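Worked Example 4.2. Consider the chain below.
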Amino acid sequence: MNRTEQTKNDPRELLTRPPYGYRFNREKTRLEVDKNEAEIYRWIIKIYVEQNMSLRDITIMLREKGIKCKQAKWSKSTLHCVLKNPVYCGHVSCTIPPLISESLWAEVQAEMKRRTIRSSHKDRNSNFFLRGILRCARCGASVKPRRGSFRKDGTAPRYYVCYWAGTSKKNIKAESSRKKCSLPFLKAGMAETAVWNEAKKILARNPEMDKAQFDSLSPGDRKRLIEDMLQGEVYIDYREDVAEGGPEALRLDYQLQPSLPMA
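Applying the procedure from the previous section yields the following structure tokens:
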């Protein structure tokens, strides 16, 4: 459960960890508005909604201005939680003064949802069936699908890329605790073959399912099949001691479903 959900379900959390924009008055044992932080919060809302500024750019701007989020530096994840927190429109407790109206807070939530949907649709027609399954064994981040530049024949190479290996310097700058990950870009075919080779060991109890049948499945069905056989996520790494060129150059770490036997 994230901090926003804790706050929403247990208002007592507010007394020990006041949200940004508030401070705890010990004499009156209640939360009060911190005028400086409240002004900054409203400014964040304004540039997010009216100027369509991204969380990344807002985070960088806050850090460059030396504005701290309570006792820590701003990050995209912290800013995301702040924007999602219902305390700011009075949804958590009627004793806590709201900083914005319910209608404006609802507008912020709608904008966040719209941007999430827009981002998820960018690659909706791809055939990366390991989407949402792979994680980086080096830094723990999600390993996401990516297409390279289109060739003259209209095709484009496919890769799986650790988020913190393939993201921009601007995104890394927005997260104070992150560094560039060293995991190389993984050829999608190589990664998918490596996972399929592991899956074949489990499919021994179902010998009718061969590679040709697997390839005939839709990307969504392939993903569901792999997730059913493996415990959801597969940590993947590149073995520096093995020459590149085949799935044996990848190291996979996963947990089999207890009911599925190995070959």
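Residues 102-120 form the longest helix (19 residues). The beta strands are 22-25, 30-33, 134-136, 143-147, 158-162, 186-187, 234-238, 250-253. Compare this with Example 4.1 before moving on.
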